[in-house]
Amino acid sequence: MKINVVGGGLAGVEAAWKLANRNIPVTLYEGKPEVFSPAHHSPYLAELVCSNSLKSNDVYGNACGLLKEEMRLLGSLTMEAAKVSRVPAGGALAVDRDSFSAYITEKIQAHPLITLERKKIDCIPEDGICVLATGPLTQGALAEEISSLLGALHFYDASAPIVSAESIDWDKTFIADRYGKGSGDYVNCSMNKEEYEAFWNALVTAERATLRDFEKREIFDGCMPVEIMASRGMDTLRFGMLKPVGLYDREGKRPYAVLQLRKEDSAGSSYNLVGFQTNLKFGEQKRVFSMIPALRNAEFLRYGVMHRNTYLPAGSLRSDFSCKKRENLYFAGQITGVEGYVESAMSGLLTGIHIARRLEGLPPLTLDNTTVCGALSSYIAAEHTDFQPMNANYGILTPLNERDKAEKKRKMGVRALEAIRQTGESI
Fold first, then answer.
1. Which of 50, 338, 419, 420 would be a feasible disulfide site paired with 343, CB 3.0-4.6 Å?
2. Which domains can be identified in the chain, with CATH numbers?
3. pLDDT value, residue 273
4. Sign of the alpha-carbon dihedral angle for 328, 334, 337, 343
Protein backbone atom coordinates (compact mmCIF):
# COMPACT_ATOMS: atom_id res chain seq x y z
CA MET A 1 0.00 0.00 0.00
CA LYS A 2 1.32 3.45 -0.89
CA ILE A 3 2.24 5.71 2.04
CA ASN A 4 2.20 9.48 1.59
CA VAL A 5 3.49 11.79 4.31
CA VAL A 6 2.66 15.43 3.71
CA GLY A 7 4.91 17.89 5.56
CA GLY A 8 8.63 17.77 6.22
CA GLY A 9 8.63 19.18 9.74
CA LEU A 10 9.57 17.22 12.85
CA ALA A 11 6.41 15.11 12.82
CA GLY A 12 6.57 14.30 9.12
CA VAL A 13 10.20 13.24 9.09
CA GLU A 14 9.70 11.12 12.20
CA ALA A 15 6.78 9.26 10.61
CA ALA A 16 8.63 8.75 7.32
CA TRP A 17 11.83 7.66 9.08
CA LYS A 18 10.10 5.10 11.28
CA LEU A 19 8.16 3.59 8.36
CA ALA A 20 11.19 3.42 6.09
CA ASN A 21 13.21 1.76 8.83
CA ARG A 22 10.49 -0.90 8.97
CA ASN A 23 11.10 -1.57 5.24
CA ILE A 24 7.96 0.32 4.18
CA PRO A 25 8.48 2.71 1.22
CA VAL A 26 7.31 6.26 1.84
CA THR A 27 6.84 9.38 -0.26
CA LEU A 28 7.48 12.50 1.80
CA TYR A 29 6.13 15.77 0.40
CA GLU A 30 7.63 19.10 1.46
CA GLY A 31 6.51 22.44 0.04
CA LYS A 32 9.82 24.26 0.56
CA PRO A 33 11.52 25.81 -1.33
CA GLU A 34 8.55 26.20 -3.69
CA VAL A 35 6.59 27.92 -0.94
CA PHE A 36 7.48 29.11 2.56
CA SER A 37 5.12 29.77 5.45
CA PRO A 38 5.39 33.13 7.25
CA ALA A 39 7.57 31.50 9.93
CA HIS A 40 9.90 29.36 7.82
CA HIS A 41 13.08 30.50 6.09
CA SER A 42 15.41 27.52 5.70
CA PRO A 43 15.14 24.97 2.86
CA TYR A 44 16.04 22.20 5.32
CA LEU A 45 13.55 19.68 6.65
CA ALA A 46 12.62 19.78 10.34
CA GLU A 47 13.26 23.53 10.63
CA LEU A 48 13.06 24.93 14.16
CA VAL A 49 11.40 28.34 14.05
CA CYS A 50 10.52 29.60 17.56
CA SER A 51 13.49 28.49 19.65
CA ASN A 52 16.51 26.23 19.54
CA SER A 53 15.58 24.64 22.86
CA LEU A 54 13.99 21.23 23.18
CA LYS A 55 13.38 21.97 26.88
CA SER A 56 14.68 20.07 29.89
CA ASN A 57 16.87 17.01 29.57
CA ASP A 58 16.10 15.85 33.12
CA VAL A 59 14.64 12.37 32.62
CA TYR A 60 13.53 11.87 36.21
CA GLY A 61 12.55 15.41 37.16
CA ASN A 62 10.81 16.91 34.14
CA ALA A 63 7.97 15.50 32.01
CA CYS A 64 9.48 16.73 28.73
CA GLY A 65 12.83 15.24 29.73
CA LEU A 66 11.05 11.94 30.33
CA LEU A 67 9.28 12.20 26.98
CA LYS A 68 12.60 12.64 25.21
CA GLU A 69 13.96 9.49 26.83
CA GLU A 70 10.83 7.57 25.80
CA MET A 71 11.44 8.77 22.24
CA ARG A 72 15.10 7.75 22.35
CA LEU A 73 14.01 4.25 23.29
CA LEU A 74 11.57 4.26 20.36
CA GLY A 75 14.26 5.24 17.85
CA SER A 76 13.52 8.93 17.34
CA LEU A 77 15.36 10.72 14.54
CA THR A 78 14.81 14.03 16.36
CA MET A 79 16.67 12.78 19.41
CA GLU A 80 19.46 11.39 17.22
CA ALA A 81 19.86 14.75 15.47
CA ALA A 82 19.74 16.64 18.77
CA LYS A 83 22.59 14.55 20.13
CA VAL A 84 24.95 15.47 17.30
CA SER A 85 23.95 19.15 17.11
CA ARG A 86 23.66 19.96 20.81
CA VAL A 87 24.92 23.28 22.19
CA PRO A 88 25.52 24.09 25.89
CA ALA A 89 22.33 25.08 27.69
CA GLY A 90 22.64 23.90 31.29
CA GLY A 91 19.98 21.33 32.05
CA ALA A 92 18.13 21.99 28.81
CA LEU A 93 18.60 20.27 25.47
CA ALA A 94 19.37 23.04 22.98
CA VAL A 95 20.71 22.56 19.46
CA ASP A 96 22.42 24.45 16.68
CA ARG A 97 19.39 24.93 14.46
CA ASP A 98 21.11 24.67 11.10
CA SER A 99 23.17 21.63 12.09
CA PHE A 100 20.10 19.94 13.54
CA SER A 101 17.96 20.42 10.43
CA ALA A 102 20.82 19.67 8.02
CA TYR A 103 21.47 16.35 9.77
CA ILE A 104 17.84 15.29 9.48
CA THR A 105 17.62 16.43 5.86
CA GLU A 106 20.70 14.41 4.94
CA LYS A 107 19.35 11.31 6.67
CA ILE A 108 15.98 11.55 4.91
CA GLN A 109 17.50 12.20 1.48
CA ALA A 110 19.91 9.29 1.84
CA HIS A 111 17.35 6.68 2.89
CA PRO A 112 16.66 4.30 -0.03
CA LEU A 113 13.00 3.79 0.92
CA ILE A 114 12.11 7.49 1.26
CA THR A 115 11.22 9.48 -1.84
CA LEU A 116 11.40 13.19 -1.05
CA GLU A 117 9.15 15.28 -3.29
CA ARG A 118 9.66 19.03 -3.06
CA LYS A 119 6.19 20.17 -4.00
CA LYS A 120 3.20 21.86 -2.41
CA ILE A 121 0.19 19.61 -1.76
CA ASP A 122 -3.20 21.32 -1.99
CA CYS A 123 -5.49 18.37 -1.32
CA ILE A 124 -5.45 15.23 0.80
CA PRO A 125 -3.93 12.34 -1.19
CA GLU A 126 -6.41 9.49 -1.45
CA ASP A 127 -4.16 6.77 -2.89
CA GLY A 128 -3.14 4.55 -0.01
CA ILE A 129 -2.45 5.79 3.50
CA CYS A 130 -1.82 9.49 4.08
CA VAL A 131 -0.20 11.20 7.07
CA LEU A 132 -0.92 14.92 7.21
CA ALA A 133 1.86 16.59 9.16
CA THR A 134 1.48 20.04 7.68
CA GLY A 135 2.03 21.89 10.92
CA PRO A 136 0.43 24.75 12.79
CA LEU A 137 0.55 27.05 9.76
CA THR A 138 -1.54 24.86 7.46
CA GLN A 139 -3.28 27.16 5.01
CA GLY A 140 -4.90 27.47 1.59
CA ALA A 141 -6.87 24.79 -0.18
CA LEU A 142 -5.52 22.00 2.05
CA ALA A 143 -6.65 23.82 5.19
CA GLU A 144 -10.07 24.35 3.64
CA GLU A 145 -10.40 20.64 2.84
CA ILE A 146 -9.41 19.70 6.40
CA SER A 147 -11.91 22.21 7.77
CA SER A 148 -14.61 20.83 5.49
CA LEU A 149 -13.91 17.34 6.81
CA LEU A 150 -13.38 18.08 10.49
CA GLY A 151 -13.69 21.79 11.25
CA ALA A 152 -10.68 23.73 12.53
CA LEU A 153 -9.65 25.92 15.45
CA HIS A 154 -6.84 28.41 15.84
CA PHE A 155 -4.56 29.77 18.53
CA TYR A 156 -1.58 32.09 18.30
CA ASP A 157 1.91 31.94 19.74
CA ALA A 158 4.99 34.14 19.51
CA SER A 159 8.75 33.76 19.10
CA ALA A 160 11.52 35.63 20.93
CA PRO A 161 14.09 38.02 19.45
CA ILE A 162 17.71 37.09 18.80
CA VAL A 163 20.62 39.50 19.38
CA SER A 164 24.20 39.56 18.18
CA ALA A 165 26.71 38.40 20.80
CA GLU A 166 29.20 41.15 19.97
CA SER A 167 26.55 43.82 20.63
CA ILE A 168 25.88 42.69 24.21
CA ASP A 169 27.46 44.80 26.97
CA TRP A 170 29.23 41.93 28.68
CA ASP A 171 30.33 44.14 31.59
CA LYS A 172 26.69 44.31 32.63
CA THR A 173 26.17 40.53 32.58
CA PHE A 174 27.22 37.54 34.62
CA ILE A 175 27.42 33.89 33.61
CA ALA A 176 25.52 31.46 35.79
CA ASP A 177 22.86 28.77 35.79
CA ARG A 178 20.03 28.95 38.29
CA TYR A 179 21.01 27.33 41.61
CA GLY A 180 24.34 26.44 40.02
CA LYS A 181 22.77 23.60 38.04
CA GLY A 182 24.60 23.38 34.73
CA SER A 183 27.94 24.48 33.37
CA GLY A 184 27.44 28.24 33.11
CA ASP A 185 25.50 28.25 29.88
CA TYR A 186 23.23 31.26 30.51
CA VAL A 187 24.13 34.92 30.18
CA ASN A 188 22.29 36.88 32.86
CA CYS A 189 21.32 40.52 32.31
CA SER A 190 20.59 42.20 35.64
CA MET A 191 18.18 45.02 36.39
CA ASN A 192 17.83 46.96 39.63
CA LYS A 193 14.44 48.08 40.91
CA GLU A 194 14.50 51.43 39.12
CA GLU A 195 15.62 49.91 35.83
CA TYR A 196 13.05 47.15 36.02
CA GLU A 197 10.13 49.47 36.75
CA ALA A 198 11.10 51.76 33.86
CA PHE A 199 11.36 48.72 31.58
CA TRP A 200 8.00 47.37 32.75
CA ASN A 201 6.21 50.66 32.18
CA ALA A 202 7.63 50.91 28.68
CA LEU A 203 6.74 47.30 27.92
CA VAL A 204 3.08 47.44 28.93
CA THR A 205 2.49 50.69 27.02
CA ALA A 206 4.45 49.73 23.89
CA GLU A 207 2.65 49.50 20.55
CA ARG A 208 1.78 46.00 19.43
CA ALA A 209 1.50 44.68 15.90
CA THR A 210 -2.07 44.88 14.63
CA LEU A 211 -4.00 41.64 14.46
CA ARG A 212 -6.79 41.09 11.97
CA ASP A 213 -10.24 40.23 13.35
CA PHE A 214 -9.83 36.48 12.87
CA GLU A 215 -6.50 36.62 14.69
CA LYS A 216 -7.93 38.13 17.86
CA ARG A 217 -8.21 34.89 19.77
CA GLU A 218 -7.02 33.65 23.10
CA ILE A 219 -3.26 33.18 23.14
CA PHE A 220 -2.09 29.81 24.39
CA ASP A 221 -0.48 30.26 27.81
CA GLY A 222 2.54 28.10 26.94
CA CYS A 223 3.75 30.73 24.46
CA MET A 224 2.29 33.92 25.89
CA PRO A 225 3.93 37.16 24.66
CA VAL A 226 5.97 38.91 27.32
CA GLU A 227 3.93 42.11 27.04
CA ILE A 228 0.70 40.19 27.73
CA MET A 229 2.28 38.52 30.73
CA ALA A 230 3.59 41.86 32.01
CA SER A 231 0.14 43.44 31.77
CA ARG A 232 -1.06 41.12 34.53
CA GLY A 233 0.92 43.06 37.14
CA MET A 234 4.23 44.82 37.74
CA ASP A 235 5.80 41.85 39.50
CA THR A 236 4.45 39.11 37.21
CA LEU A 237 7.67 38.93 35.17
CA ARG A 238 9.77 38.83 38.34
CA PHE A 239 7.96 35.63 39.27
CA GLY A 240 8.24 34.33 35.70
CA MET A 241 10.89 34.67 33.01
CA LEU A 242 12.75 37.47 34.87
CA LYS A 243 12.82 35.80 38.27
CA PRO A 244 16.13 36.34 40.09
CA VAL A 245 15.90 33.42 42.53
CA GLY A 246 18.85 31.05 42.43
CA LEU A 247 21.07 33.61 40.68
CA TYR A 248 23.84 35.79 42.13
CA ASP A 249 25.80 38.44 40.28
CA ARG A 250 29.55 39.05 40.25
CA GLU A 251 29.37 40.62 43.69
CA GLY A 252 27.45 37.70 45.13
CA LYS A 253 24.19 39.64 45.31
CA ARG A 254 20.78 38.58 44.00
CA PRO A 255 19.55 41.06 41.36
CA TYR A 256 16.08 42.59 41.43
CA ALA A 257 15.24 41.06 38.02
CA VAL A 258 17.21 39.03 35.48
CA LEU A 259 16.80 38.43 31.77
CA GLN A 260 18.55 35.26 30.68
CA LEU A 261 20.15 34.86 27.26
CA ARG A 262 20.85 31.47 25.71
CA LYS A 263 23.17 30.61 22.83
CA GLU A 264 21.36 30.40 19.52
CA ASP A 265 24.23 28.62 17.75
CA SER A 266 27.20 26.47 18.74
CA ALA A 267 29.65 29.28 17.96
CA GLY A 268 27.93 31.60 20.42
CA SER A 269 27.61 34.39 17.85
CA SER A 270 23.95 35.06 18.68
CA TYR A 271 21.72 34.79 21.72
CA ASN A 272 18.01 34.21 22.29
CA LEU A 273 16.11 36.32 24.84
CA VAL A 274 14.70 33.48 26.94
CA GLY A 275 10.95 33.74 27.48
CA PHE A 276 10.61 36.96 25.49
CA GLN A 277 8.10 35.84 22.89
CA THR A 278 6.47 39.02 21.68
CA ASN A 279 4.03 40.70 19.34
CA LEU A 280 5.44 44.22 19.72
CA LYS A 281 6.18 46.19 16.57
CA PHE A 282 9.80 45.82 15.51
CA GLY A 283 10.73 49.40 16.39
CA GLU A 284 9.14 49.00 19.80
CA GLN A 285 11.07 45.80 20.44
CA LYS A 286 14.31 47.64 19.75
CA ARG A 287 13.30 50.58 21.97
CA VAL A 288 11.91 48.63 24.92
CA PHE A 289 14.28 45.67 25.10
CA SER A 290 17.27 47.99 24.75
CA MET A 291 16.26 49.49 28.11
CA ILE A 292 17.79 46.40 29.72
CA PRO A 293 21.31 47.62 30.59
CA ALA A 294 23.21 44.77 28.95
CA LEU A 295 21.22 45.30 25.74
CA ARG A 296 21.62 49.09 25.48
CA ASN A 297 23.40 48.75 22.13
CA ALA A 298 22.05 45.35 21.11
CA GLU A 299 21.89 44.47 17.43
CA PHE A 300 18.70 42.50 16.82
CA LEU A 301 19.36 39.74 14.31
CA ARG A 302 15.73 38.67 14.41
CA TYR A 303 12.73 40.36 15.97
CA GLY A 304 9.98 38.42 17.65
CA VAL A 305 6.90 37.63 15.58
CA MET A 306 3.55 35.95 16.12
CA HIS A 307 2.48 32.90 14.14
CA ARG A 308 -0.94 31.59 13.22
CA ASN A 309 -1.38 28.05 14.46
CA THR A 310 -4.06 25.55 13.47
CA TYR A 311 -5.17 22.46 15.34
CA LEU A 312 -8.02 20.01 14.93
CA PRO A 313 -11.23 19.97 16.96
CA ALA A 314 -11.21 17.73 20.00
CA GLY A 315 -12.21 14.15 19.33
CA SER A 316 -11.30 14.18 15.62
CA LEU A 317 -8.61 11.54 16.08
CA ARG A 318 -8.15 8.19 17.72
CA SER A 319 -5.24 7.65 20.09
CA ASP A 320 -3.21 6.14 17.21
CA PHE A 321 -3.55 9.53 15.42
CA SER A 322 -5.90 8.10 12.78
CA CYS A 323 -8.86 10.17 11.63
CA LYS A 324 -12.24 8.91 12.84
CA LYS A 325 -13.94 10.05 9.64
CA ARG A 326 -11.48 8.59 7.12
CA GLU A 327 -9.90 5.18 7.61
CA ASN A 328 -6.60 5.73 5.78
CA LEU A 329 -5.96 9.28 6.97
CA TYR A 330 -3.65 10.05 9.88
CA PHE A 331 -2.51 13.36 11.35
CA ALA A 332 0.75 14.14 13.13
CA GLY A 333 2.38 17.17 14.69
CA GLN A 334 0.99 20.31 16.26
CA ILE A 335 -2.11 20.20 14.10
CA THR A 336 -3.25 17.27 16.28
CA GLY A 337 -3.31 19.40 19.43
CA VAL A 338 0.05 18.56 20.95
CA GLU A 339 2.17 21.65 21.65
CA GLY A 340 5.93 21.93 21.38
CA TYR A 341 8.78 20.65 19.26
CA VAL A 342 9.31 17.44 21.21
CA GLU A 343 5.61 16.66 21.51
CA SER A 344 5.15 17.25 17.78
CA ALA A 345 8.01 14.92 16.91
CA MET A 346 6.60 12.31 19.29
CA SER A 347 3.26 12.28 17.48
CA GLY A 348 4.98 11.64 14.15
CA LEU A 349 7.12 8.90 15.64
CA LEU A 350 4.08 7.15 17.12
CA THR A 351 2.07 7.57 13.92
CA GLY A 352 4.83 5.81 12.00
CA ILE A 353 4.84 2.97 14.51
CA HIS A 354 1.06 2.61 14.46
CA ILE A 355 0.92 2.46 10.64
CA ALA A 356 3.85 0.05 10.46
CA ARG A 357 2.23 -2.34 12.91
CA ARG A 358 -1.04 -2.15 11.00
CA LEU A 359 0.68 -3.05 7.72
CA GLU A 360 2.74 -5.79 9.35
CA GLY A 361 -0.36 -7.43 10.78
CA LEU A 362 0.72 -6.79 14.37
CA PRO A 363 -1.72 -5.90 17.15
CA PRO A 364 -2.10 -2.18 17.86
CA LEU A 365 0.55 -0.58 20.03
CA THR A 366 -0.93 0.06 23.46
CA LEU A 367 0.55 2.88 25.52
CA ASP A 368 -1.38 3.85 28.63
CA ASN A 369 -1.17 7.01 30.70
CA THR A 370 1.82 5.78 32.68
CA THR A 371 3.93 7.03 29.75
CA VAL A 372 4.08 10.58 28.43
CA CYS A 373 3.63 9.25 24.89
CA GLY A 374 0.50 7.40 25.89
CA ALA A 375 -0.92 10.22 27.98
CA LEU A 376 -0.55 12.76 25.16
CA SER A 377 -2.08 10.30 22.71
CA SER A 378 -5.04 9.84 25.03
CA TYR A 379 -5.40 13.58 25.48
CA ILE A 380 -5.72 14.35 21.76
CA ALA A 381 -8.28 11.57 21.36
CA ALA A 382 -10.52 12.66 24.24
CA GLU A 383 -13.79 14.56 23.79
CA HIS A 384 -12.86 17.84 25.48
CA THR A 385 -15.43 20.61 25.89
CA ASP A 386 -12.71 23.27 26.13
CA PHE A 387 -9.77 21.87 24.18
CA GLN A 388 -6.36 23.54 24.42
CA PRO A 389 -3.02 22.35 22.97
CA MET A 390 -1.13 20.20 25.45
CA ASN A 391 2.53 20.05 26.46
CA ALA A 392 4.20 17.13 28.19
CA ASN A 393 3.44 17.41 31.90
CA TYR A 394 3.01 15.16 34.92
CA GLY A 395 -0.62 16.18 35.33
CA ILE A 396 -1.73 13.98 32.43
CA LEU A 397 0.08 10.89 33.75
CA THR A 398 -1.53 8.25 35.95
CA PRO A 399 -0.81 9.50 39.50
CA LEU A 400 1.31 7.75 42.09
CA ASN A 401 0.67 7.67 45.83
CA GLU A 402 3.94 9.29 46.88
CA ARG A 403 4.21 12.45 48.99
CA ASP A 404 7.74 13.49 48.13
CA LYS A 405 7.50 15.36 44.82
CA ALA A 406 11.01 14.57 43.61
CA GLU A 407 10.64 10.91 44.45
CA LYS A 408 7.22 10.81 42.78
CA LYS A 409 8.69 12.16 39.54
CA ARG A 410 11.55 9.69 39.71
CA LYS A 411 9.18 6.78 40.17
CA MET A 412 6.98 8.01 37.34
CA GLY A 413 10.04 8.08 35.12
CA VAL A 414 11.11 4.57 36.04
CA ARG A 415 7.56 3.31 35.50
CA ALA A 416 7.23 5.02 32.11
CA LEU A 417 10.51 3.78 30.68
CA GLU A 418 9.79 0.24 31.80
CA ALA A 419 6.40 0.44 30.07
CA ILE A 420 8.06 1.62 26.84
CA ARG A 421 10.57 -1.23 27.00
CA GLN A 422 7.79 -3.75 27.47
CA THR A 423 6.06 -2.72 24.24
CA GLY A 424 8.76 -4.48 22.22
CA GLU A 425 9.21 -1.31 20.16
CA SER A 426 12.17 0.06 22.07
CA ILE A 427 15.63 -0.19 20.56
1. 338
2. 3-157+308-422 (3.50.50.60), 162-304 (2.40.30.260)
3. 95
4. positive
